[in-house]
Amino acid sequence: MSYYELDARIAARAEPSERAAFIYRTYAHLAGAVLAFVLLEAALFTLVPQQELQQFLMTAFRSPISLLILFAAFIGVGFVARMWAHASTSPAMQYLGLALYVVFQAIIFVPILFVAVYYVRDPNLIPQAGILTLSVFAGLTIIAFTSGKDFSFLRSILSLASAIVIGVMIAAIFFPIGLGLGFSVLMVVIAGGYILYDTSNVIHHYRTDQHVGAALELFASLALLFYYILRILILMSNNRN
Questions:
Q1: How far is 94 from 92, CA to CA, in rounded Å?
Q2: Domain residue spans in the chain?
Q3: 237 Cβ partners below 8 Å, 6+ apart?
Q4: What value, to the nearest 5°, has the Cα angle with vertex 5 and ends 158 and 220?
Q5: Residue environment code for 57-94, b if the CB has 16+ CB neighbours within 10 A, otherwise e
Q6: What Cα–Cα distance (Å) separates residue 164 from each residue in 168, 183, 190, 209?
Q7: Among 16, 73, 103, 226, which residue carries the largest CB count within 10 Å?
Q8: In a 10 Å sphere around its CB, with 0-12 CB exposed, 13-18 middle and 19+ buried, how is residue 218 labelled?
Q9: What pTM, to 2 d.p., does this model score?
Q10: 49-88 per-position pLDDT tens digit
Q11: Strand partners, 10
Q12: CA–CA separation, 195 vs 228, rounded Å?
């Protein structure tokens, strides 16, 4: 999602030093969001016993209705967090939006990380997923910055793809639709598209005061990529076993 305006303050029209400062602030905030996410997950899995985490998962995901509520909450919280993070009148609200989104993502990631930690039991799995995610993200970022191409045309494509995916995921809650390896690969492709789109917005469209909102969008795409790369590794590990 983009929240940029075509005015004199957009980074592409700013002075080189101002534009460079905006880009630095954006990626510094992204790094801070990633670090906060990692620390939150480490705290959860270090301080909360396995049995309590398992009980939480059994309670939260025990029925299709519970899953649907969580899915709706994810969309709703994401919308509110984005709205706050892009609030042009309140820097404090921007940071609150970014913090809200990071915390909620940390909660959403608990099930897949629980599987990776306590069922797959491969200590290299999560680090591998992290390295692959950062490598793909770095590669796509370099492409966006060096090509000079405006990838904003991806917006309609990604919006349509996301709508279809949401429909499929909702259907999978109520019907026995297998979201296997192929679905995860497709989601990695979609996440890559969002990274190109979001990075292009940083280069071409965001205002120089929108670094917090830009960081949130990049973090959302990075989290999506990490989730499905990790899911692919888990599925491949299960197939080997």
A1: 5
A2: 11-240
A3: 120, 122, 125
A4: 40
A5: eeeeeeeeeebeebeeeeeebbeebbebbbbeeeeebb
A6: 6, 12, 12, 33
A7: 226
A8: buried
A9: 0.90
A10: 888 888 878 776 666 777 788 888 888 999 999 999 998 7
A11: 207
A12: 14
